[in-house]
Amino acid sequence: LKQAVVDKSPVVAASVLVSALHLIKHNGEIIKRWVNEVQEAAQSRHAMVQFHAVALLHALRATDRLAVSKLVTQLTRAQVKSPLAQCLLVRYVSQVIVDSQPGANGESRPFYEYLESCLRHKGEMVIFEAARAICNLRDVTARELTPAITVLQLFLSSSKPVLRFAAVRTLNKVAMTHPMAVTNCNIDMESLITDQNRSIATLAITTLLKTGSEGSVDKLLKQIGGFMSDIADDFKVVVVEAIRALALKFPAKHRALMNFLSSVLREEGGFDYKKSIVGAILALIQEIPDAREAGLAHLCEFIEDCEFTFLSVQVLHLLGREGPTTREPARYIRYIYNRIILENA
After folding, report:
1. Contact 174, 149 (CB under 8 A)
2. pLDDT tens for residues 171-217?
3. How far apart are alpha carbons 118 and 125 in whole angstroms?
4. C-alpha distances in Å from residue 122, one per residue of 74, 118, 168, 243
5. What are phi and psi of 56, to 5 degrees?
6. How many CB atoms lie within 10 A of CB 24?
7. Which end of the chain is more exposed for a tag (fewer CB within 10 A), N or C?
């Protein structure tokens, strides 16, 4: 087996390397004697052989952080031509710098230049892996994010659905912590709202809701209106959560957002979906005083024809707590009395 690692046949060599990856879990000492042959295989011109050799070299050093750092330094200077092997190397580089801090006086982190150079690679998977690694860096700065965001923006207009999905999913995650860094991609993401792939469309909408300005809220709500009926409840919950966050971010727009939530509350949907909408309206009532009267009115209308007892009880409890302090407490008596007369339990 040891000699077969450097076999001329790439099929044989790759098979032995995969076997070694399995064997190392049970008897690593034997595989450690193969280091010279594995390092030679790591220079192979065959993509799969190089990929498995790099994986095995890392597995041999996985418990030693210093050895992993040396391996990464060695491989970043060597010519790793296999796109799969480069993806692995990008991940190993991420592991090495995950605990490192941004350099002093604006200097780059160690290995950051390597990640940035991978953004100019010919292979799309290597480019994406590097962009994702940069976006996932701890305490990443706006300057470090810029080249990765630029590359992901180009992927948004790709003809390949998998690239569009990968890009918008990564940007969605970045928007949670650095919304301003993603705003330049908003025009490209608006075109994805009508994408045939509903997963892409949902991620585009939720990213826009996180990065949009106060002036763009009405436009976004119009675009979402015709979109909600075409997606599954799981995706609808994600959209509702994004709308809830947007309403808390821009309290002045609570009327438009509350009206949207009340309209989708009247539509068909499962328990989790309805629960998320009720939860969003409750959050607005608690956080925005001006939204209290309108929110209570919408919830009262909802329990008139609600098939979920849990949600009805939740709304009735809210009416008991908030109703007496409103301007017209008597207006809620009818809704409460209806529940006493019409409910079975």
Report:
1. yes
2. 999 988 888 888 888 888 888 888 888 888 888 888 888 887 777 77
3. 10
4. 22, 9, 21, 38
5. -70, -40
6. 18
7. C
